[in-house]
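Render BZIP domain-containing protein in 3D.
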Amino acid sequence: MANSNVLASQRTTVADMWVRDEDDWSGISDTKRRRKIQNRRNQRMHRSRKRTEVECGAVAISKREQPVPIQTTSTLPLITPPQSPADSEIEAITEALKCVNILNPKSEYNRKVLQDFEALAYQYWQARMPLTTLLPSLSRFNFTRALLANIEVLGISSEQMSDEATSPFNLPGFHEAEESKSLVARLPAGLRPTDLQCASLHHPWIDLLPVPEMRNNIFRRGFDAFDEEELCHALRDLGILVWSDPWDPSGWEVTETFVKSWSWVLVGCLDLFRSTNKWRARRGEKPLFRLPS
């Protein structure tokens, strides 16, 4: 059985690996649920006769629903890939990562996508196959995982990350409670709330950015002056690179593209400027910021 599974995996594209569990009805006893999954599988097989296998996988990723409960083991086989994935397969992976939602940090979909991407990246690293086309997805993966890690550090629950949630730092009596004082004292310096942060009503996603000056710039700007969702996507989509501990600003790097489009967010972020120049220097690149001596 193990050998047949490996052979089947070798015939499957990377894009299909990301959607395979949607059609797996093994272990599901509910008749209606099994039939629904089987019908969905039959419909996909019908479409695959009219499209190429890779195209079908990419479309399935972009339109996938919340997955049914799945096994805890990764669907990606730990084998040496025979060749680099095609551009369409990389696009499918990118679309899957874009669907990861930090507003639902405990979702099974989030966990599965991040787990499978990490397994995929490790396979190619293990095979010593450099994939420059995978780097944008890797950067997006690192940034998303960093925000999810900072949710844990701040002790924010899934309910507190909902669409209409308000930062716990804005809750009445938060700073008077002994438990809250103890929490703030234990936080890494980059995540400790500023006075302006506590005084400005906001969604807790901003609390996840470990650069106090950046958070203050957002509050000073005012939420009527920019699109929050657009800013979040700009940060995620090659705006910020995270190289080490997600709560430490010295492990964060801002990209030139983000600087050109969102310069007001970065005013006075000297620690971020220093870390950006440091990480660029490690790659042999010129400094992005001119810093006072």
